[in-house]
Automatic annotation (TrEMBL):
Source lineage: Bacteria, Pseudomonadati, Pseudomonadota, Alphaproteobacteria, Acetobacterales
Protein name as catalogued: Flagellar biosynthetic protein FliR
Sequence similarity: Belongs to the FliR/MopE/SpaR family.
Record-annotated membrane-spanning stretches: 43-64, 76-109, 129-148, 189-211, 217-244
Keyword NAD: no
Membrane topology term: Multi-pass membrane protein
Amino acid sequence: MEPAELLAQLPLLAFQAALLFARLGAAAMVLPGLGEEEVPASIRLGLGLGLVLLMFPLLAPALPAPPDEAGEAVRLILIEVIVGLWIGGLARLVVIAMAVAGQAIALLLGLAQAMVPDPALGAMGTATGRLLSLAAVVVVLGTGLYVIPLRALVESYAVLPAGDPFPAGAGAEVFAVAAGESLALSLRLAAPFVLAAIVINVALGLLARIAPQVQVYFVAVPGQVLAGVALLAVIMPPLLGVFAEAARDAFLILPGLR
């Protein structure tokens, strides 16, 4: 391409790159594994720019030309940001399920008072919640599952072309369903600890009835914690396997891949 032709095409290329960055960059800020709060925002934005450079030759033909009005250009960019956050948020809900399961496990183990900063939940969280949220990130990155949401982002231009209105109603419905499935996954992951907590509390109730003179509370707390930690050590490998399978299934039905 001649320099004069390149200069003539520069406004078009710049607007298309901005549209592409709006969707890919917004998604990169929240994608599991790649958009963690521990990763500085500058690195996440740099990842978004890298995705733009990588995908621009492939996706540029499907991107619209810059409109004549500035307001219309802003509207198009905002729509792309919403789409990117929506797709990234759908993938993020799977990882949040591990953090929620960890919160429930801590409550059942009697460790709910041991609070640590948890960026995954945006506030203070329990030690087991933080442990499981970090384990989820390790699984996503270590098994290569992070590639599936990136592929969904690229394929999303076939079902949600740049410049088309965002289907807010359908998008909210899909997000609500994904949130429900995330909660169901967290309950499945915490199910062994729910059963253990029921057994322990029933046993302690029987002990309190049989031997009222025993200080059940002082016996129960350390015993419950020790039993729960031992159960967590035994359950952790299959728990991560269940999460990896559920995450793969959830990622494969992201918009653009289903």
